[in-house]
Structures are given as structure tokens and as C-alpha cells.
Known about the structure:
Order of helices and strands: EHEHEEEEEEHEHEHEEEEEEEH
Number of strands: 17
Number of helices: 6
Structural class: alpha/beta
Largest sheet: 7 strands, mixed
Helix content: 10-25%
Radius of gyration: 21 Å
Shape: elongated
Amino acid sequence: xxxxxxxxxxxxxxxxxxxxxxxxxxxxxxxxxxxxxxxxxxxxxxxxxxxxxxxxxxxxxxxxxxxxxxxxxxxxxxxxxxxxxxxxxxxxxxxxxxxxxxxxxxxxxxxxxxxxxxxxxxxxxxxxxxxxxxxxxxxxxxxxxxxxxxxxxxxxxxxxxxxxxxxxxxxxxxxxxxxxxxxxxxxxxxxxxxxxxxxxxxxxxxxxxxxxxxxxxxxxxxxxxxxxxxxxxxxxxxxxxxxxxxxxxxxxxxxxxxxxxxxxxxxxxxxxxxxxxxxxxxxxxxxxxxxxxxxxxxxxxxxxx
Length: 305
């Protein structure tokens, strides 16, 4: 069991965590990044990024690899271990993994959030091939085409409204006849001539020909209909990866870290960055921005000790 000391331990090697590592290393702090799976987070599954400043077209994998290489070239150490707990009771923070224990003066939690899946067959296989969890990320690829959105909350309504200005046809599918979203937004969407509401229905299957070419929708009576669409945007919620640290940081009702734009938590020396933080906009650019902010404030904290 290794026990090593660092200035900053960053939990998560997604865009937020790796950006934090870059800023921390440029401030000459020793940095360890712990990652449970692979570097890059969910962005590695995106075939083409068009909305990141400077990079007009870049794959998610290439973006993540460049970020990883930049961080490690600056001297950040990355270990592929899942952080399971943080003990902040002593002078230093102690981060526990299944294999080792690490000490740090400051910790940045950048574990992100997982998209909640529909659970239909081959859903994950078709990500980037007609399945998307981010309308603002991928909507432009379906200009003048037919798309569908599934969900009943504000995100689904906002996605459908955004797509209505891009696509020729938008189907909004919801399992109930009423939405959780605010009524004003729903009424506004109902006025869009190219939006069709498909209520009391669920997506039961994908129609696939190397990519998604349609979806099968089932109503409450068991009747099925096939809708010809080029993409299904899934907006049924996200699951923040904060459960292991719920005893250390404050979480909101949805499980997101209750931290503002300064990325500080209620615990001195513990910061959060990225999609696991409570905020309105979750995009690649806001994740990297969070990483910069969290690292900058972590450095200030360390320098004040």
C-alpha cells in the first residue's frame, strides 16, 4: 500500500480534471490525477467537436489525448485507480483508492456525471451514430433532418426548442401526458409548427442500418409506431458521480456538488470542477473553465497555508 504526498490530488481525468492539472502544474504544484476508467471522460465518445473555441473540428478522442498529453508533459502524474473516499479530518487530505492511499494539501473532485440511459437495445453502440445525449453539442449535425427528443423535464423541452430551429422535424416523446418542465416553456414549444408531441409513449427499440434511421415508439396500450428520424436525443437525466464523497461535500437534491462558480465547497482545501457541480450549463468549455478556476483557487489555498 503506497502512501505518497502531493500538493493537489485531482479525482477524475476528464476535461475538467486534466485542465485543473495543467493549471496546477503551471503554478509549480505537484499533481496526482486519479482516474477510475480512461482519460477524457464522456467526450472521447464524441466523433466531432465543433463548438470548442479555436478547434473548428476535432474528435473527442483527439481532444482528450491532446489534453492528457499536455498535462503529463507538464509533469502531472496520472494513475488509473478509483478514488473511494476522502478523509479531511487531519492536517492534510487523505484520498483512498482500492490499492493505495495518497495525501494532499488540496483535493479537486472532477468526477463528472453519467448520462442516464434509456435502456433500449444497442443504445450505447449507436452513440455518435444517431444517439446523442447533448443537443447543443450535436444538433448542428442534423440540420434540415428529422430528429426526436425523449424526456419530460426542462432539459428535454430546451433541447426540443433548440433543435426546432435547426431540424425540419422534431418529435418530443414523453412517457406521461404532462411534463415536469415549467408550463411556460412547454406552451412556447407547442407553438412550434415543426414540433410534434408524442405523449404517453416510450422508445421501445432503435431501427438501425449501420446507424439509427428510426425509432419504435410504444404507447400505453402496447401499440407501436416507427418514426423515421436521423437522431434520438436522450434527455432523461444525468447521474453525478459524487456518491463516494457525500460525507465530505454538500450535495443538492439531485446529487450534484453544491458549489458556485468559484468551485469551492464548504470544506477548506476541497474543490469541485466539471459536470458533477451544480450549474446551468454543462458543456466541454465550461468543464475546462471549471478546471482552471478550481486549480487556481486550490493554489491560492495552498499558498495561504
